[in-house]
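Comment thread on ticket #2218

A.B. wrote:
> Attaching the input chain for the structure job we discussed in standup.
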Amino acid sequence: MQAMILAAGFGTRLLPYTLVRPKPLFPVLNQPLLLLTIQRLQKAGCDHIVVNCHYLREQIVHALQGIPGVIVQEESSVLGTGGGLRLALDQFRDEPVLVTNGDIYHTIDYQNLYQDHKLKGASVTMAMHDFPRFNSVAVQGERVFSFDDRAKGDLLAFTGLHVLDPEVLAGIPENEEYSIIDLYRQILKQGQMISVTRVDNCFWTDMGTVEDYLELHAGLLTGEIPVWPELSLPATGSFLLDHRVKRSSELVLRDWVCVGNAVIGKNTCLQRSVVWDGAMIEEGCRVVDQLVVQ
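C.D. wrote:
> Ran it. Output below, let me know if you need it in another format.
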């Protein structure tokens, strides 16, 4: 089983935090999301994983160095979701490729999606769900009807997970910025089927904004969102503090808090916030509903 993780984007909606690190390396409960995603793919049976990178790519190259079965594809220019896959075509084996975005936290079963694709016999299978905020794809039964005509079929949202047969990528121009959805539009015009796997019962978030990122941590720490087995939570409930954090006994924690290897000044209160490794909070501060990165 092989996969590709798309991790080349700029993460502009998360500025200025993406000036510090690329979005796929944002920590979830103090662990980089990209590394967690690789672990989950490997546990699902993926022994060959391509990860593309462009923005702040030196950080991703460093983070993935030495991981068995992982190939890092550095892109000197922006190639988009389709262009990056086209560049990786020579890296793929002659078998379906599971593609996932590098900035999503979800409970979708990779193996089930992969096997569903093989059973349905289409060249592309997209994991879809009912997510009103992003519903934009018209679906009829178990197939995509249109990416543009929303009046026909049920509207569903694309999760960013799809499985495709590598040969379809030959239809993408080489070394150009290109959206994979534009390729899928062409496939539909040619009369080919794009199948749908419904994943409505799964949790999913793309961490697209700071609010999304904080809500994810709130849900994980309070038990409202399923916690991946790769993430370990202490018995202290809704407070997760790295064992290396430097803090005083006067630190007050409220609601939920996640703190990495940071320095916390005296007489400080943290509430509904995430503090990254390397951050420093000065004495007497009250931090509420914030992401603190330095």
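A.B. wrote:
> Thanks. Noting for the ticket: Helices lie at 33-43, 57-64, 80-87, 110-120, 180-189, 210-222.
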